[in-house]
Target: Fibronectin type III domain containing 4a
Amino acid sequence: MRRSLLLFINRIIFLFLDRPPAPVNVSVMHLRADSATVSWEVPEGDIIIGFSISQQRMDGKMQRFIKEVNTTSRSCVLWDLEEETDYIIQVQSIGLYGESQASKRVHFRTLKKTDRFPSNSLDKARHLQTGEMIIIVVVLLMWAAVIALFCRQYDIIKDNDSSNSKEKVKPSSERTTPEHHSGGLLQSKVGHL
Model:
């Protein structure tokens, strides 16, 4: 009897020591009338193979459990939610030897179907779009400058090549020697005859 009690206590201690830590920083984002995204973080160092989410309406009428294993995901989309309804969620980590304790409870409320985004999300989206536009304009200006510089260098090289080729193709009568700039040696001899 004593030995079986010690084995039982050892198993309980083993299970509690090897349970993964509870998720932290649980948050709800991308709220819609019928969906929301839950995200969380897990402390480093433990092997996490999945997660479990409990979702419950505040009025207690409905409860749903979502369990995913063989994933390293740290977020989950909740579907089929009711508009303008309060929900509570908790997340658990799934490790090799069991599940963690549940995270702190997080409350959120879905939107009306006529609402697209909450006002703070809309402001963030506008800032993000403005920032993206600035980056795109800067990149395009840099590309335009590179192309203009290339075209200028190409024109200079092309002009140099064309003037070099004109000198090579001059008729022999136009060629001069360095000693006589008026037609070369043969022409000066012909002029004295």
